[in-house]
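Tip: read the tokens left to right.
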């Protein structure tokens, strides 16, 4: 039985990053992955393929709606969905192949099969051909990620009633795509097909979309998706049933007045969140405790209830984000090496890759009100940005929340062009506990989208933005 210093179960962003950092720190490291390709949900059926389709569909949308105004005359473009899917697959393969390269470069031993605990230091790997193998590991990091969650009574048939996985492989553009859930996954995939011509209806139980983000972002994104792509939103609606026929799906729901409504479409995407993947890991055998939602309980050092067993990413509490899992993977690896790393969970940014993009870090205005914190608000609309006008991306704004007394930035909320990249400046500033005035006095290149962040900080600190 081969022995390792550290074994990582799961090769998603959290798992493979943890394995690389462990190897860099001199640990003999193994990585176990159930599926034939590395990368987990994010690289195979999540972040990377969805962004590939989002980019392709955005090119098509711009060709139809904006090229003429830019002075580009072309024949009416047609959607070649098969080619879009093929390009997406190529991007996924290239990215996953890159992870294979990194495993070899860092001399990490990769096992393909389902890993489960026999004892706290013995892991069995069940292979696809029925064979089994055991290894011994002094420390283990559980990084098995999550799977799409569905609602009770809704059976996902993967044909007409689908999850995000099947939505990445459709053979046709839906005529009417009904999405259950107004969160990140539903809105991103809805944007893909909305740009390609689908009618999109979003059914959401809460009173707003992207409910975990600042209310101003929710309101603006809903407005823009309705204006640009014709999205229909049914908020405060509880789905009571979904039924599928050969080429039709029927969704029934009740509204706030307990009235029953019925929707008919050709596809229904169930996007109501994800659940931690801890199935058949043998956790009960070794005494790893789970909370009532099925997540692995960990302490502030990400240690489970069993000595030598750690857990990171979607299987533990907190935001289900690839970059959060990556930070936790590095955090555990460096602790094992005797270092003292830290993670500020309040400064893990969140992004929605619609267009305009939505990005945020820190406290929302609702959270500050709940805490009774005295704060001030600065904002700047992209319609006042020269760079945004040049690119015809004038929807949205940057909103900065700062402490009323110290001027320290407490939260930054953006909706607009390239805010997924812009948010990094806000994270950097907040990690160094910058004030709004600090950012407002930094030189930002002109013309750029990031000037809007500077202007919002000027508005927050002194109510003196230059360009509005």
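Filled-in amino acids:
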């Amino acid at each position: 039985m081969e022995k390792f210093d550290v074994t990582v179960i799961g090769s998603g962003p959290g798992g493979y990053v943890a394995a690389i950092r462990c190897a860099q720190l001199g640990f003999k490291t193994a990585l176990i992955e159930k599926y034939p390709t590395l990368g987990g949900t994010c690289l195979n059926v999540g972040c990377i393929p969805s962004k590939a389709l989002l980019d392709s569909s955005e090119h098509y949308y711009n060709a139809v709606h904006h090229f003429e105004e830019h002075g580009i005359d072309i024949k009416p473009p047609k959607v070649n969905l098969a080619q879009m899917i093929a390009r997406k697959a190529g991007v996924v393969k290239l990215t996953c192949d890159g992870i294979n390269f990194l495993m070899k470069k860092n001399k990490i031993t990769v096992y393909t099969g389902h890993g489960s605990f026999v004892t706290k230091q013995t892991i069995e790997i069940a292979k696809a051909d029925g064979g089994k193998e055991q290894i011994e590991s002094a420390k283990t990091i559980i990084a098995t990620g999550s799977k799409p969650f569905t609602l009770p009574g809704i059976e996902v048939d993967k044909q007409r009633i689908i999850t995000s996985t099947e939505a990445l492989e459709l053979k046709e553009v839906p005529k009417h795509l009904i999405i259950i859930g107004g969160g990140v996954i539903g809105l991103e995939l809805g944007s893909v097909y909305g740009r390609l011509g689908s009618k999109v209806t979003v059914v959401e139980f809460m009173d707003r979309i992207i409910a975990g983000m600042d209310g101003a972002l929710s309101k603006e994104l809903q407005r823009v998706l309705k204006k640009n792509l014709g999205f229909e939103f049914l908020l405060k609606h509880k789905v009571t049933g979904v039924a599928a026929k050969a080429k039709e799906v029927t969704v029934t729901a009740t509204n706030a007045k307990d009235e029953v409504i019925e929707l008919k479409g050709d596809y229904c995407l169930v996007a109501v969140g994800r659940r931690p993947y801890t199935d058949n890991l043998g956790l009960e055998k070794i005494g790893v405790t789970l909370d009532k939602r099925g997540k692995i309980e960990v302490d502030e050092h990400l240690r489970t209830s069993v000595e030598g067993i750690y857990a990171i990413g979607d299987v533990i509490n907190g935001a289900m984000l690839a970059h959060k899992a990556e930070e936790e993977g590095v955090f555990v690896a460096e602790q094992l090496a005797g270092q003292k790393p830290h993670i500020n969970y309040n400064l893990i940014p969140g992004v929605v890759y619609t267009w305009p993009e939505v990005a945020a870090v820190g406290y929302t205005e609702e959270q500050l009100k709940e805490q009774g914190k005295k704060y001030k608000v600065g904002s700047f609309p992209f319609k006042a940005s020269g760079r945004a006008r040049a690119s015809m991306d004038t929807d949205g704004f940057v909103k900065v929340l700062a402490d009323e007394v110290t001027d320290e930035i407490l939260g930054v909320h953006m909706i607009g062009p390239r805010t997924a990249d812009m948010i990094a400046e806000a994270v950097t500033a907040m990690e160094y506990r910058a004030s709004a005035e600090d950012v407002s006095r930094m030189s930002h290149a002109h013309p750029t989208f990031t000037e809007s962040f500077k202007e919002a900080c000027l508005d927050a600190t002194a109510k003196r933005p230059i360009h509005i």
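The radius of gyration is 24 Å. Residues 81-105 form the longest helix (25 residues).
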